[in-house]
Amino acid sequence: MLRRPLHGLVRAVTLALLAVLVVQHHAIVEAEAATGWPANMRTQLVAPAIVYLPRERKAYVFGGRILTPLTHYTDVAIIDLAHNITGADADSSAISTAPFSLPIADSSLVPLAVTRDKALNDVYDVWLLGGMATGGPLRAFAVNDLLRAKEVTSVGLTASDASGQSLGGLIVGHPGRSGATTPFAPGASNQLGTDPAVYAFGNWSTVNNTLWRFDKSAAVRAVAAGTTLPPPRGFSCMVRYDSLRVVLTGGNNGNNTRLKDLWTYNLVANTWSQYSSPLLVARDDCQLAVYQLPDKSASYLLIMGYTSNPALEYVNLDSGDAPRAAVLSTADTQGPESVSAHAMFVHDSHLFLVGGVPTALLNIIKIAPQNDGTLAFAWVKTYVPSAAAGTNTTAAGNGTTTDRAATDGTGISAGAVVGISIGTVAGMGLLGIDDST
Ligand SMILES: *[C@@H]1O[C@H](CO)[C@@H](O)[C@H](O)[C@H]1NC(C)=O
Ligand SMILES: *[C@@H]1O[C@H](CO)[C@@H](O)[C@H](O)[C@H]1NC(C)=O
Ligand SMILES: *[C@@H]1O[C@H](CO)[C@@H](O)[C@H](O)[C@H]1NC(C)=O
Ligand SMILES: *[C@@H]1O[C@H](CO)[C@@H](O)[C@H](O)[C@H]1NC(C)=O
Ligand SMILES: *[C@@H]1O[C@H](CO)[C@@H](O)[C@H](O)[C@H]1NC(C)=O
Ligand SMILES: *[C@@H]1O[C@H](CO)[C@@H](O)[C@H](O)[C@H]1NC(C)=O
Fold first, then answer.
1. Of 225, 292, 317, 374, which residue is the least packed, with the fewest Cβ within 10 Å?
2. Running DSSP on this structure, what letter comes out for residue 412?
3. Spelled out in words, what is the top-level CATH class assigned to the domain 33-406?
4. From which residue to which does the signal peptide run (predicted)?
């Protein structure tokens, strides 16, 4: 008779104890981790790849290169978006070195992240498509359970053309790619295949207009996307605009002409269509991100790279409007004139520009929607998390880089709750407590 209540008490005490242990463990890990940007990234951070986790308010920064002399590196950094972050502070305590690095130095990686399971919704598996900036054949890396990972491994890559013929030693140089992604929802199936996928377009220096699809079996294949295709190019930029569309723009046509045509690839129809207006200016080595209004009533494509005139332009693709030049306020701080070859993502109504040329570590732009449908932008010296940021976040859904607000309504993210229960289950096993009695 006494067993049950006692058992309950033992369990409650064990839980409390474990909670303390978990907290202490985290404190120790944080104290030990070197803070600030890794040494190579401080030298120059060109073409990193980012996995942005809106729920955990973290961004993992994978690899990069130094331009002179050309050097790729294996560094991985973590940006903790729950803290104040001063962009220009290389020693910022919000930045740490990850407990793992790439097995091979690389940059311009194409990241893919997938939430493993509905019940364990903070378990993210990551695949990185590489070899596109180093002149060699494509290769792939994988990270199992990103938040708890101790290593990045090399995994075998398979490549095929649109008819399924295997392509050994496939070389794709500097394609259009998004440097940043968010995790796909668990079990999300994807058009043109059963797994979620990310896309890259074109080639350098033999320019091409093949759309490449990379999925979590580390398979790359050419997509046969109809007869209307964007013209061949290298160094363009792409982003997942929403669950239906991938956007492509910019790049160099191989004859030293930069491009400004804007295209959307529809994942369901498997067709490309050209947007009614081009960019205001031609760009290459550009990057794209998506900003969604807080009330989710509209999304805007943000385009940056190559030129300072304007440094940033934006367009709501559903409006049919032409892109607009962003006016960037310098009241708080003077940002760089332009940034190229960076990676960027939107978090908490701020655009985070990671790396790039001219040499930059982190630059931050605050975005403020105006009543007339335009957006106002301002460089900020220090990002200060808003009160609402991070409470109430939902699982990421479709690989877009928009951060998202709202739904579980508990004030503590489901990820944190699950994290505690995983720790508990593992701890129970270690302590030899048999929960079945
Ligand atoms: C973050 O910055 C804000 C605004 O400057 C300040 O009020 C707050 O104390 C800072 N938080 C930390 C932890 O430094
Ligand atoms: C891309 O360009 C490189 C360099 O010219 C070439 O070796 C490679 O075969 C090209 N790849 C494709 C898919 O066209
Ligand atoms: C692009 O590369 C693919 C794969 O090598 C090839 O089949 C295709 O003909 C190329 N396209 C152009 C426009 O060169
Ligand atoms: C590039 O220039 C060559 C030689 O003038 C020409 O044959 C080719 O069509 C041009 N390609 C593009 C994409 O303009
Ligand atoms: C993408 O996913 C987010 C979050 O799940 C959702 O709010 C948004 O509507 C999705 N976009 C589309 C076009 O389905
Ligand atoms: C959290 O979500 C609930 C339910 O959707 C909403 O009412 C509340 O305003 C949200 N809180 C914040 C801080 O966004």
1. 374
2. S
3. mainly beta
4. 1-31
